[in-house]
Design brief:
Blueprint lengths: L2 E6 L7 H14 L3 E5 L3 H6 L2 E3 L27 H13 L4 E6 L1 H13 L3 E6 L15 H22 L2 E6 L6 H10 L3 E3 L7 H13 L6 E5 L7 H10 L5 E5 L11 H19 L5 E4 L6 E4 L12 H9 L2
Parallel strand pairs: 1-2, 1-4, 4-5, 5-10, 6-8, 6-9, 7-8
Antiparallel strand pairs: 2-3, 10-11
Helix pairs in contact: 1-9, 5-6, 6-10, 7-8
Bound molecules: 6-O-phosphono-beta-D-fructofuranose.
């Protein structure tokens, strides 16, 4: 292993910079050249890269976003462009590539591995935690904390003004972010894509909470949890009875900000292991920490597989409301 490339791909996630830093420093400490492709897979196609030295990754461990930028490359889905990427990797003599991203990025890495001799490893990074088997993804912990600090503020006004708030959180088609934000915020209800909602029951539940003396309720709506979104949920609830409702969409604020301690540590650990895996000649694996130890998980075990949320945790929300 003489030369490694690194790129960040898909939706950005806090902690990506910490991973880049660990990959660069570990490579250089092992006398391996390290280059960073800009804008995810787009950089591979356009041969747009930076040659890293130690200083270029100084002072980035605490920064959100990615110094390499990201993209969801539609060109890379086309074999014609993947062949250009392969040619560029070959011309640059890149022996190994670390892809920092989520499930879509792993699909890209799988497709690239089929046509390229460059060894590919993925580090899971997405605020959604929507990849099976890999455990916490880089950015997930920070996103929950960002959501929580916003929801805590909403709780202040909800209880003061006696109003029920619907707070929309991200997560794409996966309820993990909604569940953990729901527990952490002490929400009365969390609606996730994995569980079908019954509007009549939901309305009854909120009303009974208010009748019991609660001053304002928080309903967390995870992205995809009610297909038509927060305002349609509010109208559906209003049809079932008189509820004073407000809606807040947290949106992309959940993707920004300084990474939490957990995300910095996870990103650093996975970054170091990714370089070591490449040094050991491994390829087509995700480096992740589902439990206490770092594990190597085959691409095929993750892509197109359904991610399961923890329904016990989901039920904790209602059981403690
Ligand atoms: O995958 C991260 C994520 O923030 C999802 O939660 C959300 O569905 C999506 O990306 C939004 O993507 P974009 O910023 O490209 O619209």
């Amino acid at each position: 292993m003489k030369k490694i490339g690194v790129l960040t791909s898909g939706g950005d996630a806090p902690g990506m910079n910490a991973a880049i830093r660990a990959i660069v420093r570990t490579s250089l400490n092992n006398n391996i050249e390290i280059i960073g492709f800009r804008n995810g897979y787009e950089g591979l196609i356009d041969n747009d890269y930076v040659v890293f030295d130690r200083r270029l990754v100084g002072n980035i461990i605490q920064k959100g976003g990615s110094i390499l930028h990201t993209s969801r490359s539609s060109r890379f889905a086309n074999k014609k462009y993947r062949l250009i990427a392969e040619k560029n990797l070959r011309a640059l003599n890149v022996d190994g590539l670390v892809i920092i991203g989520g499930e879509g990025s792993t699909k890209g890495a799988t497709a690239l591995s089929k046509i390229s001799k460059t060894k590919c490893v993925v580090i899971p990074a997405t605020i959604d935690k929507d990849m099976p088997l890999v455990g916490p993804t880089i950015g997930f912990d920070t996103a929950i904390n960002s959501a929580l600090s916003a929801i805590d503020k909403i709780r202040d006004t909800a209880t003061t003004s006696n109003v029920t708030h619907i707070v929309e959180v991200m997560g794409r088609n996966c309820g993990w972010l909604g569940i953990l934000a729901g527990i952490g915020a002490g929400a009365e209800v969390t609606i996730i894509p994995e569980v079908k909602i019954d509007i009549a029951k939901l309305s009854k539940k909120i009303k009974s909470q208010l009748d019991r003396g609660k001053k304002g309720c928080i309903i967390i709506l995870a992205e995809g949890g009610f297909s038509k979104g927060g305002s349609s949920l509010a109208s559906a609830l209003k049809k079932k009875g008189d509820l004073d409702l407000r809606i807040t969409t947290l949106g992309h604020m959940q993707r920004g900000g300084n990474p939490s301690a957990l995300d910095r540590v996870l990103a650093t650990e996975l970054g170091v292991h990714a370089v070591n895996a490449l040094k050991n000649g491994l390829s087509k694996i995700i480096i992740a920490k589902p439990f206490d130890c770092v594990e190597k998980i085959g691409f095929d075990k993750v892509i197109n597989k359904k991610v399961k949320v923890d329904m016990y945790l989901h039920d904790l929300i209602e059981n403690t409301a």
